[in-house]
Every structure is written in C-alpha cells, then in structure tokens.
Design brief:
By secondary structure, this protein is mainly beta. The protein has three domains: 105 residues, Immunoglobulin-like; 184 residues, Jelly Rolls, CATH 2.60.120.200; 142 residues, Sandwich (Jelly Rolls). The protein is built from four helices and 31 strands. The longest helix is centred in the first third of the chain and has 24 residues. The protein is elongated and about 90 Å long.
C-alpha cells in the first residue's frame, strides 16, 4: 500500500511538473479563443516553438481532423466547435516530454435553437447537405458552390438581391438563367430545437411554381413535413431578373415549440423560373417578428382519413372526384384561374387549355396491400424533355417524401401504355400519386388512366413493363 501511494504521488508530481513547466514558458498563446455561432470561425493559437513537435490534443472528444497544426499555428476547426454547447472548454496539447493546457469559449448565441449557416455567410454549404433528385446526375445538381454569390446586383444586371450580409444563394454569375433553371436538387439543413417565440423567418425569391420550388420544415421525430412555403409573391408581370430579388417572410410555428426540426430546400422543376433564390434563414426569435410578410403554408392536404387499398376513382369514371387540383402559386393563368385538367372518355388529360397548359393534381391516399404491385396507363407525355417535365410521382402520407418518380419512357403517341410498379417493400404504407405537367410544347401533355393499387396476388409482367425510376 505504501509503495502504491508513493507511486501515485510520483505520477501526480510528474503531471504537475509537466503542466506547470509548460505554463511558465507560455509555449502556446491564444490568438482568438472564442467561437461565435454567428461568424463560424476557427479558434486559433500561436505556437512559440515548432508545432511539428506536438503529437496530439486531448479533451471533449476532439479527434484528428478536428484541428490543424502548422509550424507556428494551432487551429481548432469550426465543424467541431459547432457541435459544442455554449461554455468554457479546456484541452491538453501533448508534446513528447510535456503537456500544456489551452482553453476556449463557445459563445452563447442560442446555438441549439438555430440552424447552421442559414445566411450562407461562410461562402459555402457548411452545415448543409445536398442531394440529387434526378437520375443521380451531379451535373444537374442545383445548390452548386457557384450559386452562393455576392449580395449585390443580380448576374451583373440592374436588379439587386436585397439579401443580408455578404452572400446569398442566387444565380451563378457565369451561368445564364436558362441553364441554371434546368438544375434540380435538395438542400438539407442542420437540426435545431424550435424555441423562443416559435417564429422562423427567411428570404425567398424566384420559385415560379411553388409545388416544385419550396422550403419545407421537417419534424425529426417522425420525418413528417409540418409546413411548406413557396414564394407566393412571384409576379409573372415582372421583367428581366426582378423576380430573383428577395422578399422577407415570417412563419409562425409556435405550435411546435420544443421539437427538433430541420429545413429542406427543394428544387424539383426545370422550366422558366423553376429555382429559388434564398437568404437569411433564422430559426430563433425571442419575440415574434413584426413588419414581415406572412408566409403561406402550402403543405399538401388531401383530407381523407382512412386509406383503402384502392385509390379513389383510379379509372376516372367519376370525372375528377377524389382528385385534388393544386392551387399553389405558378400553375394559374394571369386571371388566377387554372385550365389544365379534364377527363375525356374516362382518361385524365392535362390539355384543357391545349398543350401549353401546366398543372399538378393529387390522388386520394391508398394503402399498399396484397402483392404490393400497382399499375397505371400513361399516354402522350413525349415532348423533348418529357422525363423532366411530364411525370408521375408516388409520395408518402405525412412526410410527403417522393418514393419514386417515373415518366412515359415507352411512349406511343397519344395511345396509353401500361406500367407496373413494385411497392412490396412498402406494404402497409399510406401513399398518394402526384401527376405533373410542367411543359408547354407539342405532345407535352400527359394522359393517365386505370390506376390499380391493389392486386391480391402478384400479376404477371416482364421487367420491361415496369417503370424506370428517375429520382435515383
């Protein structure tokens, strides 16, 4: 026992000697040792001696890659610091024969209640994740780095973005508007806990079709979409790039205070003005904001409670009964009316006002049952960009996430072609259809008929009869 105590004292003495000797020599001096959530800075220390002698850092789960060491500079990186709660932190810097303590402060800027980099002021997508939504094609991915642009005039024109700070998400300066609007993708924020007043604010521009370009708020507990917002101020009468200028919106989500949420920015269209401009997403306000534009929730509401295994009126024998024509911004004519969807001889068609008509229509809910196979017939929808502009999407109730998107890849003029979709991995799930016509040219209309969502036993069909997924 005496030997053990002596050994412990000896070890403690060595430890004290290492730290105290190092502190006397001040080998590491703070340059900036405070992390600010509004700035997203690295914290930095000057190394008096050669930093190459440092072996590693210890403390608070810091690991290789969370810091960088050069000959005279030690930096702890923002991607690690942003994971820490506000407070004081100490770390041990290890040399071969001694160790030194350093400290830093994470400032309290309501960090847990705010998403990371909501204003893109880091000049990149730090804190965000990007996803492709069309064939996995990276060259068609929106939210490319070049889209974070200086908050100034729009693509060298006379109009300004009207953003905050130095940067906004806008139109790449080196790219034409036509080229940019063909891009698609999804941008996913970090998580935050809704607090304070429960209001969130954001700036949006562009986004002619709110069903295809929108900001969603997602509940992390069940992945359900609790709210969806588009730019309902888009004005078709404006000229040039004026619609890219940002408007400041306020959304009241106080019913969800205390929940863990995240935000998704969706760019799902490839036509005229089918992209958003974006800035200043702020998810914490101690008090409700004033003098802002009230954001309009356009989350799909089909209204049917019980979901049978057969979608309602899948053969359109009852006209449009059981189907919901979207009234979201962008599909209407200049007088506010929509002339797109009709039923002719039992077939749903999107040409009530001719091939130039555009729109979106949703089915009732249906439950995946039996064999899990569903089928439908598609006609027309064979314009030059048919797979981008005229397609069918199957989505899940509540989350409104797209399971599969497909087009009429075996098109045969105006004649209907039968397709099968195997949804057996989703047995028991509640889903719905969205039919989209976002095209204006010849044959750029879509015909749909005979949607069957229940086969008790698996029907006979070949692989070539199945749809081809466009979303992955």
């Amino acid at each position: 026992m005496k030997q053990t105590n002596h050994l412990l004292l000896l070890i403690a003495g060595i430890s004290v000697s290492l730290f105290s000797g190092c502190n006397e020599q001040n080998r590491i001096m703070a340059i900036n040792d405070a992390f600010d959530f509004d700035v997203f800075n690295d914290v930095s220390y000057e190394i008096i001696d050669d930093g190459s002698a440092i072996s590693h850092l210890d403390g608070h789960n810091i690991a290789d890659g969370d810091y960088e060491i050069s000959s005279h500079l030690l930096q702890i990186k923002k991607h690690y610091l942003v994971t820490l709660a506000p407070g004081e932190y100490s770390y041990v810097v290890h040399y071969p024969e001694y160790a030194e303590k350093i400290s830093l402060t994470v400032l309290d800027k309501n960090n847990a209640y705010r998403l990371i980099n909501g204003g893109f002021e880091i000049n990149d997508y730090f804190g965000w994740k990007t996803e492709t939504v069309f064939k996995g094609e990276q060259n068609l991915l929106a939210f490319a780095n070049e889209a974070i642009v200086i908050n100034d005039t729009i693509s060298g024109g006379e109009e300004t973005y009207n953003g905050d700070g130095e940067y906004v998400y806008g139109i790449p300066n080196e790219m034409s508007k036509t080229t940019w609007e063909e891009k698609m993708g999804r941008l996913i924020s970090s998580d935050f806990v809704l607090s304070g007043s429960g209001h969130i604010t954001f700036k949006l521009g562009g986004g002619r079709n709110a069903d295809l370009n929108f900001l969603s708020v997602i509940d992390n507990a069940d992945n359900k979409e609790i709210a969806r917002y588009g730019n309902h101020l888009f004005n078709k009468e404006l000229t040039g790039l004026q619609n890219a200028s940002l408007s400041f919106f306020d959304a009241n989500l106080s019913a969800y205070i205390g929940k863990s949420l995240h935000i998704e920015i969706n760019d799902l269209g490839g036509r005229d003005w089918n992209f958003l401009t974006l800035d200043s997403i702020e998810t914490y306000h101690a008090d409700a904001p004033v003098d802002m534009i009230t954001a309009l929730d356009i989350k799909p509401t089909i209204g049917q409670g019980y979901a049978p295994n057969q979608v309602a009126n899948g053969d359109f024998s009852l006209g449009l009964d059981g189907w919901t024509v979207s009234g979201a911004t962008g599909w209407q004519k200049s007088d506010g009316t929509s002339q797109t969807w009709r039923v002719s001889n039992g077939v749903l068609k999107s040409d009530l006002a001719g091939d130039a008509a555009r729109g979106l229509i949703r089915s009732s809910y249906f439950r995946v049952d039996g064999s899990g196979v569903v089928s439908l017939e598609i006609g027309a929808a064979q314009g030059s960009r048919y797979d981008k502009d005229t397609f069918v999407s199957i989505k899940t109730k509540g989350t409104n996430q797209e399971l599969i998107r497909f087009a009429n890849h075996r098109h045969d003029g105006i004649f209907l072609v039968k397709y099968y979709i195997d949804l057996s991995e989703y047995l028991g799930a509640t889903l719905y259809f969205e039919i989209i016509d976002n095209a204006t040219g010849s044959y750029d209309t879509i015909f749909i008929d005979n949607i069957i969502t229940y086969y008790q036993t698996r029907p006979s069909f070949d692989y070539g009869d199945m749809v081809v997924a466009l979303n992955y």
